[in-house]
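Checked the freezer inventory, then went back to the computational side. Two predictions to log before the end of the day. The first one is the construct we discussed on Monday; recording sequence and C-alpha coordinates without edits.
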Amino acid sequence: MKKKSYIPFFIVILLSISMFAGKGASQTAEEESLKSYFIFNFIKYINWPPEALSDYFTISVYKSDKFTGRLREIAAQQKLKSMPVQIKIVNSLEEAASSHVIVIPEENSNYFSKIFQNFSNSPVLLITEKKGLGREGASINMRVTNNKIRFSINKTSIDNHGLSVSAKLLNLALEVY
Protein backbone atom coordinates (compact mmCIF):
# COMPACT_ATOMS: atom_id res chain seq x y z
CA MET A 1 0.00 0.00 0.00
CA LYS A 2 1.32 3.43 -0.95
CA LYS A 3 2.00 5.65 2.05
CA LYS A 4 0.46 9.14 1.86
CA SER A 5 2.68 12.15 2.22
CA TYR A 6 1.43 14.90 4.48
CA ILE A 7 4.39 17.16 3.77
CA PRO A 8 2.62 19.49 1.22
CA PHE A 9 -0.09 20.41 3.73
CA PHE A 10 2.46 21.15 6.43
CA ILE A 11 4.50 23.29 4.00
CA VAL A 12 1.42 25.42 3.28
CA ILE A 13 0.89 25.86 7.00
CA LEU A 14 4.51 26.87 7.51
CA LEU A 15 4.27 29.34 4.64
CA SER A 16 1.20 30.90 6.20
CA ILE A 17 3.11 31.69 9.37
CA SER A 18 4.84 34.65 7.74
CA MET A 19 2.38 35.41 4.97
CA PHE A 20 1.42 38.94 5.93
CA ALA A 21 4.72 40.77 5.90
CA GLY A 22 3.32 43.17 3.24
CA LYS A 23 0.17 45.25 3.15
CA GLY A 24 -2.57 46.18 0.69
CA ALA A 25 -3.78 44.37 -2.43
CA SER A 26 -0.82 42.00 -2.57
CA GLN A 27 -1.60 40.91 0.98
CA THR A 28 -5.18 40.13 -0.03
CA ALA A 29 -4.04 38.21 -3.11
CA GLU A 30 -1.50 36.27 -1.07
CA GLU A 31 -4.06 35.48 1.63
CA GLU A 32 -6.57 34.34 -0.99
CA SER A 33 -3.96 32.16 -2.67
CA LEU A 34 -2.89 30.51 0.57
CA LYS A 35 -6.49 29.94 1.66
CA SER A 36 -7.11 28.26 -1.71
CA TYR A 37 -4.28 25.82 -0.96
CA PHE A 38 -5.73 25.26 2.49
CA ILE A 39 -9.15 24.48 0.99
CA PHE A 40 -7.66 21.97 -1.43
CA ASN A 41 -5.60 20.34 1.32
CA PHE A 42 -8.46 20.20 3.83
CA ILE A 43 -10.34 18.03 1.36
CA LYS A 44 -7.54 15.49 1.33
CA TYR A 45 -8.20 14.84 5.03
CA ILE A 46 -11.98 14.47 4.73
CA ASN A 47 -13.72 11.28 3.61
CA TRP A 48 -17.03 11.16 1.75
CA PRO A 49 -19.27 8.11 1.59
CA PRO A 50 -18.65 6.25 -1.70
CA GLU A 51 -22.20 6.87 -2.90
CA ALA A 52 -21.62 10.64 -2.66
CA LEU A 53 -18.73 10.58 -5.13
CA SER A 54 -19.28 10.81 -8.88
CA ASP A 55 -17.32 11.54 -12.05
CA TYR A 56 -16.07 14.91 -10.79
CA PHE A 57 -15.22 16.28 -7.39
CA THR A 58 -17.02 19.62 -7.22
CA ILE A 59 -15.92 22.63 -5.18
CA SER A 60 -18.37 25.53 -5.32
CA VAL A 61 -17.79 29.09 -4.17
CA TYR A 62 -21.02 30.81 -3.17
CA LYS A 63 -21.82 34.07 -5.02
CA SER A 64 -18.18 35.05 -5.48
CA ASP A 65 -15.18 34.50 -7.70
CA LYS A 66 -12.93 34.67 -4.64
CA PHE A 67 -10.60 31.65 -4.58
CA THR A 68 -11.81 30.30 -7.94
CA GLY A 69 -8.79 31.40 -9.99
CA ARG A 70 -6.22 29.77 -7.73
CA LEU A 71 -8.44 26.73 -7.06
CA ARG A 72 -8.71 26.17 -10.83
CA GLU A 73 -4.93 26.38 -11.17
CA ILE A 74 -4.48 23.80 -8.43
CA ALA A 75 -7.25 21.59 -9.82
CA ALA A 76 -5.61 21.56 -13.25
CA GLN A 77 -2.59 19.86 -11.69
CA GLN A 78 -4.21 17.52 -9.13
CA LYS A 79 -7.13 15.21 -8.64
CA LEU A 80 -9.14 14.83 -5.46
CA LYS A 81 -10.45 11.45 -4.34
CA SER A 82 -9.05 10.06 -7.64
CA MET A 83 -11.38 12.31 -9.65
CA PRO A 84 -10.87 15.42 -11.77
CA VAL A 85 -11.87 18.55 -9.89
CA GLN A 86 -14.54 20.98 -11.02
CA ILE A 87 -14.54 24.52 -9.58
CA LYS A 88 -17.81 26.47 -9.86
CA ILE A 89 -19.25 29.79 -8.83
CA VAL A 90 -22.81 29.16 -7.67
CA ASN A 91 -25.48 31.78 -7.12
CA SER A 92 -28.28 29.63 -5.75
CA LEU A 93 -28.87 26.58 -3.60
CA GLU A 94 -30.06 24.71 -6.70
CA GLU A 95 -26.76 25.36 -8.50
CA ALA A 96 -24.87 24.10 -5.43
CA ALA A 97 -26.82 20.82 -5.25
CA SER A 98 -24.10 18.68 -6.84
CA SER A 99 -21.29 20.17 -4.73
CA HIS A 100 -19.02 18.18 -2.47
CA VAL A 101 -17.65 21.39 -0.93
CA ILE A 102 -19.26 24.80 -0.65
CA VAL A 103 -16.97 27.69 0.22
CA ILE A 104 -18.75 30.71 1.66
CA PRO A 105 -16.47 33.77 1.52
CA GLU A 106 -16.71 36.23 4.38
CA GLU A 107 -18.56 38.80 2.28
CA ASN A 108 -21.36 36.24 1.74
CA SER A 109 -21.54 34.95 5.32
CA ASN A 110 -25.10 36.23 5.63
CA TYR A 111 -26.14 33.25 3.44
CA PHE A 112 -24.58 30.70 5.79
CA SER A 113 -27.73 29.80 7.77
CA LYS A 114 -29.74 29.21 4.61
CA ILE A 115 -26.99 27.06 3.08
CA PHE A 116 -26.44 25.16 6.33
CA GLN A 117 -30.15 24.34 6.65
CA ASN A 118 -30.48 23.34 3.01
CA PHE A 119 -27.51 20.95 3.12
CA SER A 120 -27.90 19.73 6.72
CA ASN A 121 -28.56 16.13 5.61
CA SER A 122 -26.16 16.09 2.67
CA PRO A 123 -22.54 14.95 2.44
CA VAL A 124 -21.28 18.49 1.83
CA LEU A 125 -18.29 20.14 3.48
CA LEU A 126 -19.05 23.78 4.33
CA ILE A 127 -15.99 26.03 4.53
CA THR A 128 -16.32 29.60 5.80
CA GLU A 129 -14.15 32.58 6.72
CA LYS A 130 -16.15 34.58 9.24
CA LYS A 131 -15.28 34.36 12.90
CA GLY A 132 -17.84 32.37 14.88
CA LEU A 133 -19.29 30.32 12.03
CA GLY A 134 -17.41 27.22 13.17
CA ARG A 135 -19.50 27.22 16.33
CA GLU A 136 -22.64 27.74 14.25
CA GLY A 137 -22.05 24.61 12.17
CA ALA A 138 -19.50 25.39 9.46
CA SER A 139 -17.43 22.26 8.89
CA ILE A 140 -14.22 24.27 8.68
CA ASN A 141 -13.82 27.96 9.43
CA MET A 142 -10.67 29.77 8.29
CA ARG A 143 -9.63 33.12 9.67
CA VAL A 144 -6.57 35.29 10.02
CA THR A 145 -5.26 35.60 13.57
CA ASN A 146 -2.01 37.39 14.37
CA ASN A 147 -1.20 37.52 10.64
CA LYS A 148 -1.53 33.74 10.30
CA ILE A 149 -4.21 31.62 8.72
CA ARG A 150 -5.85 29.54 11.43
CA PHE A 151 -8.81 27.22 11.22
CA SER A 152 -11.36 25.59 13.44
CA ILE A 153 -13.18 22.35 12.75
CA ASN A 154 -16.69 21.48 13.77
CA LYS A 155 -16.33 17.70 13.98
CA THR A 156 -19.95 17.29 15.06
CA SER A 157 -21.11 19.09 11.92
CA ILE A 158 -18.78 17.03 9.73
CA ASP A 159 -20.10 13.82 11.30
CA ASN A 160 -23.71 15.00 10.90
CA HIS A 161 -23.08 15.55 7.19
CA GLY A 162 -22.03 11.91 6.84
CA LEU A 163 -18.37 12.79 6.38
CA SER A 164 -15.34 11.86 8.44
CA VAL A 165 -12.22 13.83 9.24
CA SER A 166 -8.66 12.63 9.77
CA ALA A 167 -7.18 12.91 13.25
CA LYS A 168 -4.14 14.56 11.62
CA LEU A 169 -6.28 17.49 10.47
CA LEU A 170 -8.02 17.71 13.84
CA ASN A 171 -4.63 17.98 15.53
CA LEU A 172 -3.73 20.99 13.36
CA ALA A 173 -6.93 22.91 14.09
CA LEU A 174 -6.88 25.86 16.45
CA GLU A 175 -10.25 24.74 17.85
CA VAL A 176 -12.36 21.61 17.46
CA TYR A 177 -16.08 21.65 18.30
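The second is the one RB wanted added to the comparison set:
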Amino acid sequence: MESFDVPCVVADNFLKLATGGQIKVLLYLLRFSERKCTEEEISANTGVSIAEVADAVLFWQNANIFMPRQNDTDDIIENTAEKKKLRKNLMPTAIEKMTKEMPDLHRLFIHVESILGTLNPSWQNLLIWIYNNLGLDYETIVTLIGYCKGNNKAKLGYVETMAQSWADDGINTLELAQKEVQRLTDLNQSSGRNISKTKKKKFDVKKYEEICVNNYEVI
Protein backbone atom coordinates (compact mmCIF):
# COMPACT_ATOMS: atom_id res chain seq x y z
CA MET A 1 0.00 0.00 0.00
CA GLU A 2 1.42 3.35 -1.04
CA SER A 3 1.72 6.19 1.45
CA PHE A 4 2.98 9.77 1.63
CA ASP A 5 4.07 12.06 4.42
CA VAL A 6 2.00 14.83 5.96
CA PRO A 7 3.86 17.37 8.13
CA CYS A 8 3.06 16.90 11.82
CA VAL A 9 2.36 20.61 12.18
CA VAL A 10 -0.76 20.17 10.05
CA ALA A 11 -2.30 17.78 12.60
CA ASP A 12 -0.94 19.75 15.54
CA ASN A 13 -2.04 23.24 14.55
CA PHE A 14 -4.37 23.31 11.57
CA LEU A 15 -7.15 20.75 12.02
CA LYS A 16 -9.36 23.45 13.52
CA LEU A 17 -7.98 26.42 11.61
CA ALA A 18 -8.06 25.03 8.08
CA THR A 19 -11.25 24.42 6.15
CA GLY A 20 -12.13 21.05 4.67
CA GLY A 21 -11.31 22.37 1.21
CA GLN A 22 -7.89 23.58 2.30
CA ILE A 23 -7.11 20.18 3.81
CA LYS A 24 -8.22 18.44 0.60
CA VAL A 25 -6.01 20.64 -1.57
CA LEU A 26 -3.00 20.08 0.70
CA LEU A 27 -3.43 16.30 0.73
CA TYR A 28 -3.79 16.21 -3.05
CA LEU A 29 -0.66 18.28 -3.61
CA LEU A 30 1.33 16.18 -1.14
CA ARG A 31 0.11 12.96 -2.75
CA PHE A 32 1.17 14.07 -6.23
CA SER A 33 4.16 16.17 -5.22
CA GLU A 34 6.33 14.53 -7.86
CA ARG A 35 4.52 16.25 -10.71
CA LYS A 36 2.83 19.51 -11.58
CA CYS A 37 -0.87 19.77 -10.75
CA THR A 38 -3.16 22.26 -12.45
CA GLU A 39 -5.94 24.04 -10.62
CA GLU A 40 -8.51 22.34 -12.88
CA GLU A 41 -7.12 18.92 -12.00
CA ILE A 42 -7.11 19.64 -8.28
CA SER A 43 -10.66 20.97 -8.44
CA ALA A 44 -11.94 17.96 -10.39
CA ASN A 45 -10.38 15.45 -8.00
CA THR A 46 -11.16 17.16 -4.69
CA GLY A 47 -14.54 18.74 -5.29
CA VAL A 48 -13.10 22.14 -4.33
CA SER A 49 -13.94 25.03 -6.68
CA ILE A 50 -11.13 26.39 -8.84
CA ALA A 51 -11.26 29.74 -7.05
CA GLU A 52 -10.88 28.00 -3.68
CA VAL A 53 -7.91 25.96 -4.91
CA ALA A 54 -5.72 29.05 -5.36
CA ASP A 55 -6.86 30.41 -2.01
CA ALA A 56 -5.97 27.12 -0.34
CA VAL A 57 -2.50 27.04 -1.89
CA LEU A 58 -1.89 30.59 -0.71
CA PHE A 59 -3.11 29.64 2.78
CA TRP A 60 -0.57 26.79 3.09
CA GLN A 61 2.21 28.93 1.68
CA ASN A 62 1.51 31.65 4.23
CA ALA A 63 1.47 28.98 6.94
CA ASN A 64 4.97 27.89 5.86
CA ILE A 65 3.87 24.32 5.20
CA PHE A 66 6.53 22.71 3.00
CA MET A 67 5.35 21.18 -0.24
CA PRO A 68 7.79 19.58 -2.69
CA ARG A 69 8.04 21.32 -6.07
CA GLN A 70 6.57 24.39 -4.43
CA ASN A 71 7.30 26.52 -7.49
CA ASP A 72 4.65 24.62 -9.42
CA THR A 73 1.97 25.96 -7.09
CA ASP A 74 2.95 29.48 -8.07
CA ASP A 75 1.40 28.82 -11.48
CA ILE A 76 -1.93 28.19 -9.80
CA ILE A 77 -1.84 31.52 -8.03
CA GLU A 78 -0.53 33.33 -11.10
CA ASN A 79 -3.23 31.87 -13.35
CA THR A 80 -5.99 32.82 -10.95
CA ALA A 81 -4.60 36.33 -10.51
CA GLU A 82 -4.44 36.70 -14.30
CA LYS A 83 -8.12 35.83 -14.55
CA LYS A 84 -9.00 38.51 -12.02
CA LYS A 85 -7.05 41.09 -14.04
CA LEU A 86 -9.50 40.67 -16.90
CA ARG A 87 -11.99 43.00 -15.16
CA LYS A 88 -11.44 46.52 -16.39
CA ASN A 89 -13.53 49.53 -15.45
CA LEU A 90 -15.30 51.31 -18.28
CA MET A 91 -16.07 55.01 -18.40
CA PRO A 92 -19.75 55.99 -17.96
CA THR A 93 -19.96 57.01 -21.62
CA ALA A 94 -18.73 53.56 -22.68
CA ILE A 95 -21.26 51.89 -20.38
CA GLU A 96 -24.08 53.99 -21.82
CA LYS A 97 -23.05 53.06 -25.34
CA MET A 98 -22.87 49.38 -24.41
CA THR A 99 -26.39 49.36 -22.94
CA LYS A 100 -27.72 50.94 -26.13
CA GLU A 101 -26.06 48.25 -28.23
CA MET A 102 -26.98 45.37 -25.88
CA PRO A 103 -30.68 45.40 -24.88
CA ASP A 104 -30.16 42.38 -22.60
CA LEU A 105 -27.58 44.30 -20.59
CA HIS A 106 -29.93 47.27 -20.30
CA ARG A 107 -32.62 44.89 -19.09
CA LEU A 108 -30.21 43.39 -16.56
CA PHE A 109 -29.39 46.83 -15.15
CA ILE A 110 -33.09 47.64 -14.69
CA HIS A 111 -33.81 44.41 -12.86
CA VAL A 112 -30.78 44.63 -10.61
CA GLU A 113 -31.76 48.21 -9.79
CA SER A 114 -35.15 46.87 -8.67
CA ILE A 115 -33.26 44.79 -6.12
CA LEU A 116 -30.40 47.07 -5.07
CA GLY A 117 -31.54 50.56 -6.03
CA THR A 118 -29.72 52.92 -8.38
CA LEU A 119 -26.50 51.38 -9.68
CA ASN A 120 -23.30 53.41 -9.52
CA PRO A 121 -20.53 52.90 -12.13
CA SER A 122 -18.76 50.34 -9.93
CA TRP A 123 -21.84 48.12 -9.87
CA GLN A 124 -22.43 48.62 -13.57
CA ASN A 125 -18.85 47.59 -14.35
CA LEU A 126 -19.15 44.51 -12.15
CA LEU A 127 -22.37 43.39 -13.85
CA ILE A 128 -20.82 43.89 -17.29
CA TRP A 129 -17.81 41.80 -16.26
CA ILE A 130 -20.00 39.00 -14.87
CA TYR A 131 -22.17 39.01 -17.98
CA ASN A 132 -19.45 39.30 -20.62
CA ASN A 133 -16.38 37.68 -19.05
CA LEU A 134 -17.76 35.04 -16.70
CA GLY A 135 -20.53 33.98 -19.05
CA LEU A 136 -23.37 33.94 -16.51
CA ASP A 137 -26.70 34.53 -18.19
CA TYR A 138 -29.23 37.19 -17.26
CA GLU A 139 -31.44 35.01 -15.03
CA THR A 140 -28.44 33.52 -13.22
CA ILE A 141 -27.09 36.96 -12.37
CA VAL A 142 -30.47 38.18 -11.12
CA THR A 143 -30.79 35.06 -8.96
CA LEU A 144 -27.30 35.56 -7.55
CA ILE A 145 -27.97 39.23 -6.73
CA GLY A 146 -31.31 38.35 -5.17
CA TYR A 147 -29.71 35.73 -2.94
CA CYS A 148 -26.98 38.12 -1.82
CA LYS A 149 -29.50 40.88 -1.11
CA GLY A 150 -31.71 38.51 0.87
CA ASN A 151 -28.74 37.55 3.04
CA ASN A 152 -27.48 41.12 3.56
CA LYS A 153 -24.39 40.33 1.46
CA ALA A 154 -25.03 42.56 -1.55
CA LYS A 155 -21.53 44.03 -1.47
CA LEU A 156 -19.31 44.44 -4.52
CA GLY A 157 -16.55 42.15 -3.27
CA TYR A 158 -18.90 39.43 -2.08
CA VAL A 159 -20.94 39.42 -5.30
CA GLU A 160 -17.75 39.33 -7.41
CA THR A 161 -16.33 36.40 -5.43
CA MET A 162 -19.59 34.48 -5.55
CA ALA A 163 -20.02 35.09 -9.29
CA GLN A 164 -16.47 33.87 -9.94
CA SER A 165 -17.15 30.76 -7.88
CA TRP A 166 -20.39 30.05 -9.74
CA ALA A 167 -18.64 30.47 -13.08
CA ASP A 168 -15.83 28.12 -12.00
CA ASP A 169 -18.40 25.55 -10.87
CA GLY A 170 -20.44 25.78 -14.07
CA ILE A 171 -23.48 27.35 -12.42
CA ASN A 172 -24.62 29.33 -15.44
CA THR A 173 -28.34 28.63 -15.87
CA LEU A 174 -31.42 29.57 -13.85
CA GLU A 175 -32.06 25.95 -12.86
CA LEU A 176 -28.52 25.43 -11.57
CA ALA A 177 -28.56 28.81 -9.82
CA GLN A 178 -31.79 28.01 -7.98
CA LYS A 179 -30.41 24.62 -6.92
CA GLU A 180 -27.26 26.31 -5.58
CA VAL A 181 -29.31 28.91 -3.70
CA GLN A 182 -31.35 26.11 -2.14
CA ARG A 183 -28.18 24.23 -1.20
CA LEU A 184 -26.68 27.31 0.44
CA THR A 185 -29.92 28.08 2.27
CA ASP A 186 -30.16 24.50 3.58
CA LEU A 187 -26.51 24.61 4.61
CA ASN A 188 -26.99 27.85 6.55
CA GLN A 189 -30.08 26.52 8.27
CA SER A 190 -28.54 23.18 9.21
CA SER A 191 -25.42 24.81 10.62
CA GLY A 192 -27.36 27.32 12.65
CA ARG A 193 -25.62 30.22 10.91
CA ASN A 194 -28.47 31.85 8.99
CA ILE A 195 -27.23 35.11 7.56
CA SER A 196 -30.63 36.74 7.39
CA LYS A 197 -32.89 37.08 10.44
CA THR A 198 -35.94 36.83 8.25
CA LYS A 199 -37.32 33.71 6.64
CA LYS A 200 -35.64 32.86 3.35
CA LYS A 201 -37.80 32.71 0.26
CA LYS A 202 -36.92 31.27 -3.11
CA PHE A 203 -35.88 34.14 -5.34
CA ASP A 204 -38.31 34.45 -8.22
CA VAL A 205 -36.91 35.97 -11.41
CA LYS A 206 -40.39 36.13 -12.94
CA LYS A 207 -41.56 38.29 -10.04
CA TYR A 208 -38.95 40.92 -10.89
CA GLU A 209 -39.93 40.63 -14.54
CA GLU A 210 -43.45 41.72 -13.57
CA ILE A 211 -42.20 44.50 -11.27
CA CYS A 212 -39.96 46.04 -13.92
CA VAL A 213 -41.95 45.38 -17.08
CA ASN A 214 -43.41 48.89 -17.08
CA ASN A 215 -39.94 50.40 -16.74
CA TYR A 216 -38.33 48.29 -19.43
CA GLU A 217 -37.64 49.92 -22.74
CA VAL A 218 -35.64 48.31 -25.49
CA ILE A 219 -33.07 50.81 -26.74
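For RB: Residues 92-212 form one domain. The longest helix spans residues 174-191. Let me know if you want it refolded.
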